[in-house]
Structure formats: C-alpha cells, structure tokens
Specification:
heterodimer, A: about 425 residues, 5-stranded mixed beta sheet, 4-stranded antiparallel beta sheet, B: about 400 residues, alpha+beta, 5-stranded antiparallel beta sheet, 4-stranded mixed beta sheet, 12 helices, globular
C-alpha cells in the first residue's frame, strides 16, 4: 500500500470542536482507520477552499452508466496534482426506499461496496431524497452499478432533465394524520416511471413529492413540480372526552412540543379557537363541548396538531394535487398551485398516472429548454393550463382571488357574431 | 397495491462480493448481465415488525422529552422513537455505527427523516433508557456528539443543506462547515422545546437551491456579487452560445466576436449593469466562471414556511443582503442567526412561526427589534416586485421614520 499523505488543515480542524457532530473528525478518522488517501485529499482540497473562499471543483463532466442518462454526476478537481486521489470524484445517486426506512443489513452492504469502490464518503440523503455516494472514478461506475443491481437490488436515482427520484413523508408507517399511503404511492409511481427517471426526455427536471397531510413534512408544496398532499373531505373526528382532558390539563397540548417553557395553563379559546384561520370552531364552556363547523374548515391542521389525542382527520380521504413549485433559478421561486382540489388515491393510482402523462405530454411539446413546469404554466396562463391543457373545469379553488384587471383574452367563439365585421356596413351607420 | 416483502431481502445478509461485478460486466458487450430499471428496494421489507403490524393504524403521539416520541396504535401497541441529528455528510464508518446501534436496540431497523435526522425505534421503556444513555456516550475523538438527541417540537431541528465546497462546482459558500458552526451555537435549541414554535433553518450554497430553502423560517443562501468572467479563447469550444444567451433571466448577455492571434472567435459579452449575479450563465457555460473569494458570501432570508398550519405556506424574505464568507466559523452569519432566533423567541406568541410573528408585528418592527440595518438592496426590483410595495398608509412608526421637514432637489 502506498504511503498515505496527510495535509495540514488548520482551518478545518476548528470544525472538530463544538457539540454538533463533526464531519471533519469523521472523515479524518475514516482516512486514518482505512488508510484512505481520498479522505485526506478531500479535506486538503476543502482546506484550500477555506483559505481562498472558492470551490476547487471543475465545471461538470458528463459520465454515467450504459443505457441511463442520469443518476451519476461527474466531478473533477482543479487541483489534481496536489490531490491526485480525488482527481475525479463523481457522485452516484441511489434511489432511496420510500420514507427512508432501512435495515442495517442493506446499509452495511452498501458500506462495504463503497469502501471498496469509492471514497467511503456519503450523504444521507441528498436534497431530492436519494442516498448519495460521494466520490469515485469513471472506471468504477459500471462496477458500482452492477454491484447495486446484482448484490443490493438497488437502482440509480434521477439527475438532469428527467423525472427526479420521487420522495415522501413517513406517511402511514408511523403518522396518525396521513390521509394517503404516501409510501405506496411513491413506490408505485417510481416503479411505473422508471424510463422517465433514467432517460432524460423532459425540458428540465421534474420532481414529485408526496406528503400525507397539510403539515407537508417533505415540503412538497415548496419544491415539487407535482405536489401530492393528503387531505380529507368530511368532518374532523372529535373525541370530546380527550378535548376535556386537554382543557383540564391532563393532556399536554401539541403532544408536548412546548415542554421547556412555562406558557401558562392550556387555554383552548386562546390557543385553538382564536387561532383557527376560518373561525369555524366553538368551545361551549358550559357543556364542555367542542363544536366544529366543518363546512367552513380549510383543513390547516392547527387544531389537530394541538390536540392530537382528541382530533383526527376525517375518513373521506384523498389528496390535493398542486403543480409548479421550484427554487429561484430562473424566473424566481414558485410555490405549487392547486390544480385538483380533491383526488381519491387508490392503487394502482391510474388517475394520478394519467394526470402525469397529460401534464408531461403538454410540457414536453411546449416547454422551452430548461423551463420548469411552473414557468410553463405562468407563460401559457393558469386558466389555459387548467381548461385547455388538462380539460378540467375552472373553479374558485384554483385561485386566491379572481383577477383585478379586465384584460381578458376572449375567444372568438365566445363572442356573438364572431370577430369578422364589415367596415363598410359600420361606416354606413357611423360616417367617418 | 404492490406486493409487500415481509422481511429484508436475504440478499442483504450475503456478504458483499468485491469481485462479482468484474466477472459480470463485459465492456465489449455492455448489455451482458445488465439489470436495469429495477427501481428502489420495496419499502415494506425495511419496516420494523411493530410498524408493519400497525401501518395505517396509528392513533396518536406524544413527545415525552425532546427527541423522544411515543406513538400509540389503535391495536394498543406502542413504539418509542429516538431522533438524533446527523451531519448528513458522513463516512461509511459513521453509517456502520448507526447500524451497530440499530442492531443492538432495534433489530437492525432505522429511519432517516427529511431533515437529515435518524430515528431509532424501540418498543419498551427499558430499552429506550439504555439506548438514550448509549447515544449520549458516543462522541468523536475531539468531543463532538455523534448522535445528539433532539429535533422535535418547538426546537431548531437539523439544518437541511446542500454540498458547498466539499463537492459542488457552483457554490458561493460552503455548506457543511456553515451548518456545523450554526448548530454548535444553537445546540441547546436542538435538544429542547423552548421556542414559540418549530424553527426550520436551511442552507443553500447558491441560488440553484437544491432543497426548500426558500420557504424556511431562517435560511442562509450563498450569493455572488461579481459578474462572470469570460474566457474568450475557450468559450465557443465549450458552450452553446445561443443557450447561454437564452439562459440569462435579465437579457444581459449578447453575442460577440473577438480576434485572438489573428483568428476570429465567437464569444459573448455581459452587460454588468444588468447582471443580478444569479450564476445561471456559469451553469450553462464553463467558460464564464462567476465565483470569487471576495465577491461571494451569504444572504439571510427569513419568515418562510412550508406547512399549511394556521397561515398558508410562504416564501422567506431577504433581511441581510450580504455577509462575507468567514471560514472556518462564519461568526457574523452565526451571530445574526442567533440574534434573529432569540428576538423571535422573546417576542412571538405560542405556536407562532417566525414569518407569522413578523407579519403580526410588521417588517419595520422586525428590523427595529433585531437591529438589522435596512438598505436599498432589500426593496425588490425583480419580477412581481410591486406585490411587496406598501400600498397603504398602514405602517408603524419605528426608528426608521424621520420626518421630512425640508426636501431640496
């Protein structure tokens, strides 16, 4: 084994201190234990960045595995002489199991593979949800892919202008509020759209995220082109006895989330009734009974969050489908906008898949290069997207408020007599 | 419904064979032995038996102490969850240690949250106590906790973040080091429930923002402040010029021709006056590097959220347009984040998120309370800027208002 070369890293060493887990200590010790040059070289290059405040990774580099157009991100150092072991340091995105549950047997096997074929450095997880293997060379990529598929029964995630790896919250596996089976939906969509995930054919990236309730723990509304958020159409279920237990101080509000500060005794009027955004709740002090005018509820989850033992989402469950969220590049950040207020979601989710196909057909035909769906929707107009593209009925739920300007692009067929007029006839009535 | 494999696939208990791939992959016949499009492993096999038994039957939950949740099922079964922060950027040794803990207490099962926390599941309290003790004792050689417990309820939970200088080619700052510096300073808030509501902090090392940084209570965003440089001798060879021009959101890039050594070269020119330093041109064209040690730094954006609770989800807003990069500890950024967090903690009502608190008191009051200088950079002049103008006479008199007695022009 070649001599291991360590680098002086006085700036990074500062990050070994303090209580929060130190990635520097971790990587340093990994390098020591495994006699791995990559561990020391990556810290050495990072130290250089800490010194001159600029990255030392070159721009891009297209690498991948045969037959796929994504899943591997090429990365090359611009300090290859100084740090030869990380001259190439490609990223491999591995599609995570839904809601990121693992068994140690699978993780340990990935560790063994990554010690052998890569830097031993990982991200759990990347921003889109993939398990990220950080740092390998081009020659190893096919072997890594063969190891993943043959020995791990795992596959690559998305990158580039394709469907990115779908992601979800923990859903029904542990959460009492999940109105949809987020994990099954995610698994089913991921399996069904393998081609879209591995072979870029879109104008730009496309993200699908699935949250079980309006608390939206995977931030679907902020970062997914296609946001699936669980909700319900009937009444919030009330256990009046448990409500009384909260009022009486026997149960801790918000499941104990405020336990380290004295906020005074629980006040249902102040903490629930008055904070309800639609003011649809009433606490009858005499009867000791909570009333909810469910017709007026907008399902914000606040009362349910505060009194989880007493209140639960209703039984008529489904999802709201929103579209178009993205980060600022290019035209500014966007949140997803309501497209289908309520959709029942039952396996095999054909209604959802068909909606996705419809959206993709249009976007692939009409989207400009590197234009996210949200930008396409803005360009063609939400009204046209809903009515002409998706064939849905426009309803008030699609907007916060109707337009304030009357600059309406009337269609000719909507106007009696059409647009063809006779100027000579006009002048007979109105001499110039 | 997809078929549910009950136990982890037996393939995972077979030892890793480091020689197998070399036997299977034939560069001359790349389709030989190739398995493709199998997708991720089925999630069901990785659910602990207690989770499988109670899937969809959970009734309620309680946070029994910071970082420890107790879930009750309709079946009467109970599961305790211990949540720990991780650095996200880690080694296989760190992963193996997580596996060792999972094997010891949780039959090997473990889960990651969206915000890079890990969760261990146990079904009895005795195991729970032992697990908590064990986690507390595990430290890196220089003393940092490997598995700090917390991140529940009205806390600062783990920071979602991007790659930064460890692996990205477009960053304006580091990610892991800034996060470590912030979490060291806010450590007490991770392991306690002292705040008015949960505070979600996020970091993106450039405006590409992988992650929902733009809807966080407090977010750190790497920014550039110098226009890109142009490598005339290389540009036409490595860039699609029309795509580069189209990539500029403000139309600041135009085609140009230059002469180098008597040879005409196609290139571009950037109208620096128009440039807003988004870096999209560099993403499209490696011959237009934009990073700069002096120019780059951080912006702080606050008051966003993702949850629909009480008020709709909203974007974070820029409150500090620029803080220089100060590795290794970014003291100025850390100081401002702590200040904003503590002013919020002192003034907000119970359940009030940072953005809801600011909207109640008004942004003018926020700037006054936090003592953050208000400058022209904070007044929007991009798309939809008009939506942010104050088109009413509803405002508060803060120290910012000075009566305009005389106006000379």
């Amino acid at each position: 084994m070649a001599e291991i070369k360590k680098h002086e890293t006085p700036l990074l060493d500062e990050l070994k201190k303090g209580p929060w887990p130190s990635f520097v200590d971790d990587i340093y010790n990994y390098g020591e234990k495994h006699k791995k040059q990559q561990g020391f070289d990556i810290l050495g290059q990072m130290e250089l960045s800490y010194k001159n405040k600029e990255t030392h990774w070159k721009h891009g580099g297209i690498v991948g595995v045969f037959g796929y157009g994504g899943g591997v991100i090429g990365r090359y150092s611009d300090q290859q002489e100084k740090f030869p072991s990380i001259w190439a340091f490609h990223t491999v995105r591995v599609n995570q199991p839904a809601a990121k549950w693992y068994h140690s047997s699978a993780l340990k096997k990935i560790c063994d593979m990554w010690d052998h074929r890569g830097s031993g450095i990982v991200n759990l997880h990347g921003s889109t949800g993939d398990l990220i293997l950080l740092g390998t060379v081009t020659e190893q990529l096919e072997y890594i892919f063969y190891d993943l598929t043959h020995q791990m029964k795992m596959d690559l995630g998305g990158s580039g202008s394709n469907l990115r790896t779908p992601e979800c919250c923990m859903g029904m596996s542990r959460c009492e509020w999940s109105c949809i089976d987020t994990q099954d939906i995610t698994y089913e969509l991921t399996m069904h759209f393998q081609d879209e995930l591995h072979r870029p054919a879109f104008p730009y990236k496309f993200k699908i995220k699935v949250s079980g309730c309006p608390n939206d723990c995977v931030a679907a509304i902020a970062r997914a082109d296609f946001s699936i958020i669980g909700t319900w159409g009937d009444d919030i279920k009330i256990d009046q006895e448990a409500v009384r237990a909260y009022v009486g101080g026997e149960l801790k509000p918000n499941a104990g989330a405020h336990s380290d500060r004295d906020w005074g005794p629980f006040d249902i009027k102040k903490e629930v009734i008055d904070l309800c955004p639609t003011k649809c709740m009433y606490w009858d002090e005499g009867q000791k009974k909570l009333y909810i005018n469910n017709k007026e509820c907008n399902r914000c989850m606040h009362c349910i969050n505060v009194m989880p033992e007493a209140l639960r989402p209703g039984d008529d469950r489904g999802a709201t489908i929103l579209m178009g969220a993205k980060a600022p590049i290019l035209e500014g950040a966007q949140l997803s906008t309501v497209i289908v207020p309520f959709m029942k979601l039952e396996p095999p989710y054909d209604n959802l898949k068909n909606l996705l196909y419809k959206v993709w057909d249009y976007w692939m035909e009409n989207g400009k290069n590197r234009e996210r769906l949200g930008e396409t929707i803005q360009r063609v107009g939400l009204n046209r997207f809903i009515v002409d593209v998706l064939g849905l009925e426009p309803i008030p739920q699609h907007v916060k408020e109707p337009r304030s300007n009357p600059y309406i692009f009337w269609k000719e067929e909507e106007v009696e007599g059409g647009w063809t007029r006779d100027i000579a006839e006009f002048r007979k009535r109105h001499p110039a | 419904m997809s078929e549910r494999p009950e136990r982890p696939d037996p393939i995972y208990t077979q030892p890793y064979d480091p020689t197998l791939a070399e036997k299977l992959y034939n560069p001359q016949k790349p389709m030989e032995n190739r398995i493709t499009d199998i997708g991720p492993p089925h999630y069901w096999q990785f659910l602990p038996p207690v989770i499988q038994r109670n899937y969809g039957k959970w009734k309620s939950h309680e946070i029994i102490q910071p970082g420890v949740l107790k879930y009750k099922s309709e079946s009467g079964e109970v599961v305790y969850v211990v949540r720990c922060g991780t650095p996200r950027l880690e080694t296989t040794d760190y992963l193996r240690e997580i596996c060792e803990i999972a094997d010891k207490y949780c039959d090997g099962y473990v889960r990651w949250t969206t915000r890079n926390n890990i969760e261990f599941h146990v079904t009895d309290e005795e195991k729970l106590r032992a697990l908590l003790e064990d986690l507390k004792s595990r430290k890196f050689p220089n003393g940092s906790y490997k598995f700090p417990v917390g991140g529940t309820g009205a806390s600062v939970t783990n920071i979602v973040h991007t790659q930064g200088w460890i692996h990205c080619h477009t960053p304006a700052t580091d990610a892991s080091g800034v996060v470590k510096s912030i979490m060291d300073e806010l450590f007490d808030y991770f392991g306690s429930h002292k705040l008015p509501a949960q505070v979600r902090i996020a970091l993106a090392c450039c405006l590409n923002m992988c992650g929902a940084v733009h809807c966080s209570d407090i977010a750190v965003v790497g920014i550039h402040r110098k226009p890109p440089m142009i490598e005339d001798d290389r540009l036409e060879k490595v860039c699609e010029i029309p795509l580069v021009i189209a990539a500029c959101p403000v139309g600041a890039i135009k085609p140009a021709t230059v002469e180098i050594g008597g040879e005409k070269r196609k290139t571009v020119r950037v109208n620096a006056e128009r440039c807003m330093f988004c870096g999209n041109c560099y993403t499209m064209c490696p011959a237009m590097p934009i990073s700069d040690g002096q120019g780059d730094g951080l912006a702080l954006v606050v008051g966003g959220k993702v949850s629909n609770r009480i008020t709709p989800p909203k974007f974070s807003k820029v409150v500090i347009p620029y803080i220089p990069n100060e590795p290794p500890r970014w003291p100025t950024a850390v100081k401002w984040i702590k200040k904003i967090l503590e002013v919020y903690s002192q003034h907000a009502n119970k359940y009030e998120r940072v953005g809801d608190w600011i909207e109640r008191i008004g942004w003018e009051r926020f700037f006054e309370l936090c003592d953050i200088p208000f400058t022209w950079h904070l007044i929007d002049d991009y798309r939809l800027a008009y939506d942010t103008y104050r088109t009413s006479v509803h405002f508060k008199f803060t120290k910012h208002v000075k009566p305009l007695v005389e106006y000379n022009y």
